[in-house]
Amino acid sequence: MVIGMKVAKFGGSSVATADMLKKVSRIVLSDPDRKFVVVSAPGKRFDGDVKVTDMFIELGESFLNGQSVEPVLNRIIDRFHSIVHELGLPDGLLSEIKDSVWAILKDDQYKSNRLDALKAMGEDSLAKILSGYLQSLGHQAHYVNPKDAGIIVSNEPGSAQVLEESFERLYSLRNRDGILVIPGFFGYTKEGNLMTFPRGGSDITGSIVAAGVRADLYENFTDVDSVYCVNPSIIKKPKEIKTLTYREMRELSYAGFSVFHDEALIPAFQAKIPVCIKNTNHPEKPGTMIVAERDATNGPVIGIASDTGFVSIYVSKYLMNRELGFGKNLLEILVDEHISFEHAPSGIDDMSVIIRENQLPEEKEERVIKRIKEELKVDTVSVERNLAMIMIVGEGMNSTIGVASRATEAFARANVNIEMINQGSSEVSMMFGVKSDKLEPAVKSLYELFFQN
Ligand code: ASP
User: Fold this and answer.
1) Domains in the chain: how many in total?
2) Which of 100, 181, 236, 380 has the smallest C-beta neighbourhood within 10 Å, fewest atoms?
3) pLDDT class of 4 with cuts at 50, 70, 90
4) Residue 199 CB less than 6 A away from ligand 1
5) 12 lines ligand 1 (CB under 6 A)
6) Are 441 and 410 in contact (CB under 8 A)?
7) Residues whose CB falls within 8 Å of the CB of residue 444, separated by 6 or more in sequence, listed in order
8) Residue 44, CB-side half-sphere exposure with 13 Å CA sphere
């Protein structure tokens, strides 16, 4: 009888080669609680390598442009060939992949979701390979298609969202025998069409499965020993985080921590499933635990996240505070123009709206500014590009006096001007806007102040 139930999800680098898949199998087989395995598509094997998902996207684009798909299909098959061959599995798996690709390209049923169906092939093929390999080692393992698993999603190609009814369906997977290998990154609409999650979305599948089967633990295997308190490309060997809360992880991954897709944790979070981030290459290390609550032993700040690529629209109008509906009207213009915003700090006579750069291409900017001027009769409106956001995150912040003053001191020490401050309403985070070229010195100075003293 199984006592605990774990969902183990393996990311792209963990399944990039046959050797890695052998490590994955050892990890899965070393703990009988690891009943559910969710996999990504093979990722990069070395710097400059191409992810299998990107190859499938290239294949789809070649097809849509009327070019031959053979060259890229051959490269894809080559990649799978070396994996299948080194694992000693039959070649039949390769012709299966080829046949499925041709079916997706030719079959009318894929007319509306062809690209999604192709993109999902990386995960789907790998799940079949891994379950085949576990069987070849003499274990009871099964490939489970997300449709059979019960993962029902919205009809949004490339950015599907899970529907609530999935969780109940997934629960019945607990009764199945053996190790269940489920491909990440996609589900099916109610009508039965395959839809993918946003890029990096295998984490989302892992989290959905963990919530659905009510796992005791969701293990997310990747290529780092733990989550670090700051981006290791800015600070060498930063402090490792042993335990953090869901809210902290969500805030950190939103602002540039690339460990997780930033929406990925929500299903696990809502179902209160503890999450552990571990390294496939060092499974004996404890990794980082993500839990609902933690004791406040680490000081008020647990991590510093940062990301570039923001724009700010600044508007000012005398007596704005008295004008009923000003904020709503401003945001309504953005809704009209299909622009989503990230933050909106405001003052008495002015307000800024912070947007991701990709939401406001230059050609849209002119029109938006004109509309704001004419429709809202503002005194000034200006746009500032090349902004970076730095976020300090920690559950302890709301009960500690002086965090903001220490943070601003760090900016002053680094001689960096703060363009904007926004204290998240949750009080788990505080956000600072700076010019992109000042991001590094500012983060270094914050790290020194909060983590090295
Ligand atoms: N294979 C997908 C991607 O490259 C999803 C994932 O790996 O999580 O985005």
Assistant:
1) 2
2) 236
3) confident
4) yes
5) yes
6) no
7) 234, 235, 414
8) 6
Atom of ligand 1 nearest to the CA of 261: 8
> Rounded mean pLDDT of 119-124?
98
Q: Does 162 lie in the same domain as 47?
A: yes
Q: What is the mean pLDDT of the chain?
A: 93
Q: Which CATH number characterizes residue 180's domain? A: 3.40.1160.10
What's the pTM?
Answer: 0.86
pLDDT band at 298 (very low <50, low <70, confident <90, very high): low
- Ligand 1 centre to CA of 156 (Å) is 17
> Residue 105: which domain range?
6-223
Residue in 225, 220, 152, 157 with CA at minimum distance from that of residue 191: 152
If one counts every other C-beta atom within 10 angstroms of the C-beta of residue 130, the result is 25
Buried-exposed string 237-260: b where 16+ CB fall within 10 A, e elsewhere: ebbebebbbbbbbbbbbbbbbebb
pLDDT value at 402 more than 90: no
Tell me the three state secondary structure of residue 222.
strand
β-pair partners for 422: 431
Question: Does 295 map to a domain?
Answer: no
Q: What is the pLDDT of residue 444?
A: 97
**Mean pLDDT calculated for residue range 277-286:** 96
First to last CA, the chain: 50
- DSSP secondary structure letters along 350-407: EEEEEEEGGGS-HHHHHHHHHHHHHHH--SEEEEEEEEEEEEEE-GGGGGSTTHHHHH
Tell me how far apart the alpha carbons of residues 433 and 391 are, in angstroms, rounded to a whole number.
9
Q: Which of 221, 216, 222 is closest to 271 using CA atoms? A: 216
Binding site membership of 207 for ligand 1 (Cβ less than 6 Å): no
